[in-house]
């Protein structure tokens, strides 16, 4: 017996207290409705309606079932609504990976947009390299990721791409720093600072190939997993790095110069499994692409605290060469 369907029939009869009107509201004939109520009574082993008088009335068991049935059917509807939200990717947990070098304000904007546009979705954001994301996507330990192209993975689907122009990062004292732009062939004799190949094999090989085809065969390749370490190696004279302009602004002792012809762009796209993808994967891809295309948005204003402050503190950059 379909208990929930029979309970729905019971509720309509209990509210109408008339089998004819209840049947009309349900869109069925009266005999099948009466038979359904009788089956429900037999299943529960109680009498739900008093039919001994000219009008239909609820028995004590019927009155008790009325409240219970309403709660049960309301719970069923809530369950169905929740499952529809999970199916549509607006509820549940999304395990998402982002590259370690993603700027803080970009992460802030991404999480804010996700919270605004998919408020029921719990986004478990993890800092992972492209290589780590590809392994976790393959092992079903990650639902979606932001990876650096090129990536050869037939089992993955990719969302819209976002391109970031890269320039060369040099020590400010380098003779090349006097130029407005630098050709790759001008870097002959320098080393190159790159993320380890394992973090993004396709991207690593692409950069090396572009350099060599343009006349720059690095004297030595050193590895840096994060931009801060890369800047340190550049300052130490261990090579040049290719980074977005915003990275170079973090360190006053380096300069960023465009590369002649703009041959290097970091292309990032969302990736998710082709088989049984998370329902929110495509929505995440759209929001992430729009956020990355903005570059580095302005950080959100910190709300004013409604309390008196005993003093104001102003931080100023330390002057070069001073000990204070």
Short description:
The protein is α/β, with parallel strands linked by helices. The chain contains ten helices and twelve strands.
Structural description of this entry:
The strands form three sheets. Strands 4-3-5-12-6 form a five-stranded mixed β-sheet, sandwiched between helices. A five-stranded mixed β-sheet has the order 9-8-10-7-11. It has a two-stranded antiparallel sheet with strand order 1-2. Helix 5 links the parallel strand 3 and strand 4. Helix 1 packs across helix 4 and helix 5 crosses helix 10. It is built from ten helices and twelve strands. The C terminus is likely disordered. It is α/β, with parallel strands linked by helices. The radius of gyration is 32 Å and the shape is rod-shaped. The protein starts with a helix and ends in a 31-residue tail after the last helix. It has three domains: about 80 residues, Arc Repressor Mutant, subunit A (Orthogonal Bundle); about 90 residues, D-Maltodextrin-Binding Protein, domain 2 (3-Layer(aba) Sandwich), CATH 3.40.190.10; about 100 residues, 3-Layer(aba) Sandwich (D-Maltodextrin-Binding Protein, domain 2).
